[in-house]
Amino acid sequence: MKLSNKTKVLEQGEMTLAERMYLPAIVGGMATTLKHFFSKPVTIRYPEQKRYLGPVYRGQHILKRDEAGAERCTACGLCAVACPAEAISMVAEERKAGEESLYREEKYAKVYEINMLRCIFCGLCEEACPKEAIFLRHDTMVPVFHQRDEVIWGKDKLVEKMDHRYLRDGWK
Amino acid sequence: MELINTVFIAKAIIVGIVFAITLGVAAYSTYFERKIAAFMQDRIGPDRAGPFGILQPLADAVKMFMKEDFIPANSNKWLFIAGPCLSMLTALMTSAVVPFGDTVTIGGATFDLQGIDVNIGILWVFGIVSLGVYGIMIGGWASNNKFALLGAIRAASQNISYELAMGMAIITILMITGSLSTKEIVEVQQNGHWNIFYQPLGFIIFIICAFAECNRTPFDLPECETELIGGYHTEYSSMKLGFYLFAEYINMFISGAVMATLYFGGYDYPGIDFVTQQFGSNVASFVGVGALIGKSLGFVFVFMWVRWTIPRFRYDQLMNLGWTGLIPLAMYNVVVTGFGILVGKPFMVSIAGLVLLIAALFVYDQLLVKKKIA
Amino acid sequence: MEISNIWYFLSALTLLSALMVILSKNPIHSVLYLVFTFFCISAHYVLLNAQFLMAVNIIVYAGAIMVLFLFVIMMFDLKKNIPESKSSLTKLAGSVVAGTLLVILIAIIRKNNIPGPVLEKFNSQTGMVENLGQVLYGEFLLPFELVSILFFVAMVGAVLLGKREAGERNF
Fold this sequence. Notes:
The complex is a heterotrimer.
Chain A: H1 17-21, H2 23-38, E1 61-63, H3 78-82, E2 88-94, E3 107-115, H4 124-128, E4 134-136, E5 152-153, H5 155-158
Antiparallel strand pairs in A: 1-4, 2-3, 3-5
Chain B: H1 2-40, H2 56-66, H3 77-93, E1 101-106, E2 109-113, H4 121-142, H5 146-177, H6 182-188, H7 195-198, H8 200-213, H9 225-228, H10 238-263, H11 272-279, H12 281-307, H13 315-343, H14 346-367
Helix pairs in contact in B: 1-10, 1-12, 2-10, 3-4, 3-10, 4-5, 5-8, 5-13, 8-10, 8-13, 10-12, 11-12, 13-14
Chain C: H1 3-23, H2 27-47, H3 51-75, H4 88-111, H5 129-139, H6 141-162
Helix pairs in contact in C: 1-2, 2-3
């Protein structure tokens, strides 16, 4: 059955003399490799040189603050529910008077922990979050850890630093 | 006695230098093999150990020494150890007769820049090369491993098959030169009368056989990973494996030097008279040494270039090429060269012979080979 | 070192390795000892200043023929083919034959005074390629060519034996 007119029947006749002597083909192949010998390498030397991975890359987690610098997270627990790897755990606490500049909502996460050994970087927490608090940033990767106690990331590592804010292309 | 002592010391120094050069080149061949492979595949290659990765051979050597030296339980222990040693020994012995340069005069004494100038030089090379297969065979058999044995047997049959064509390619050189001594072969070629112009066909046969004798791609069937795991060195580890790999690189360099000696004028280079007049014959000789080593390294590059271009032969293709391709061609070449010497115009006759061969193949192809009707 | 000392040493080594060819139980070892014997013989050629013969001996015997020997022996399953101990009759017959041969050889050597080498006539250049070639292609041209024809016939025969016949399955 012919599905399209693109089929091309190859004629595999007897090899010609030049083909049977192999040497012309070998010389041709060697010319190709020599051409590549002088062409520019495509290697990116990774640890020193990093390529842009695109705006949708899912890298290190971050807990956003709002424009005024208050934490957005309200400890609703939706991210923890959405997490297929059960990597997120949190302890909620009520906001006291005078803490309005620190936490935007009346309830906040006193403890917010992500187990980086469990996390699969699927980004479902980001989608589940109603307060736009947790993001997987596209520009930074989770650094390599060597010790067990480096594995669980608490708020100290997760909350956005004010002097190093995270911005995505579409936000402004 | 005094004279013998001086000569002996001079020879010892020359042998030592040749030994050091050979080992150094072999060590850096591993680095350049990876570098060249990388460049041909648009990569960068090893660049972490030292600037541009030039300490990579050192790192590799340390790795090789640090690995566990394992001897299989049911292997033949002494032969298992003897295998890589023999490989290394035969690889290093070949360079004894390669003339690395013309004579050098220091303090009134004249030294030949050659290990030994025997009058059977090229036969020495041939004999040692034919012994090279013992290291592989003994190692492969002593491993008590089917794949190693298969690799060893492949190596043996391959080397014997290609030695014949190689010998016949050398015979034409001997017919032109009229001597077996490598020194004389080089001296006949001085001033640009390189044998490659008189023996293009012989050179092609010789270089193909050299590939086969060194077990390099496309003839690396004895150690092909896809079929035989590692071939004859499947069971080897640590520096014993290192010896096998090292011997291969030494063989590569030496066969490059032999090819330069036989076909590319040895230590001859354009402008040798000018250098001799301007700076004296000693400088000219040392430049000649550089020329020979440069030519050999050029061949090493060709070896690597081919390795990263051509895939491996199948076993029947290998045997077919050796027995029905190269040996008849080499015989034809002997006849043509003999005719050329008889007529007195070796250059013209060799070119005519090549043209005639291609024409005859073409006619045969047109008339007798049945074409499949498309 | 005296040259005769080297000769004694080499001869002892040759005889020893030749003996080991017969005495070693493992056929592979036998072959390797035989290769070593060829090397010792080549060294003797070097002592006689016959470099060409030395090289050819190594190339042809050590480099080609013994490789084929090794090749064939490696194909055997050595563990299965442990030779059953011969009967005492065979051993006796063997010793008698070998002893008789020894006696005959000694008798021949004693009977005919084989002349030793004449040192005055010795020419150190006899073994060189040029002289050997002159002798082979001059004085002994006919025998040389006849031998080459013999080899050619043998080669053709081998090819004929090795040729696969139509319809025959070899694998």
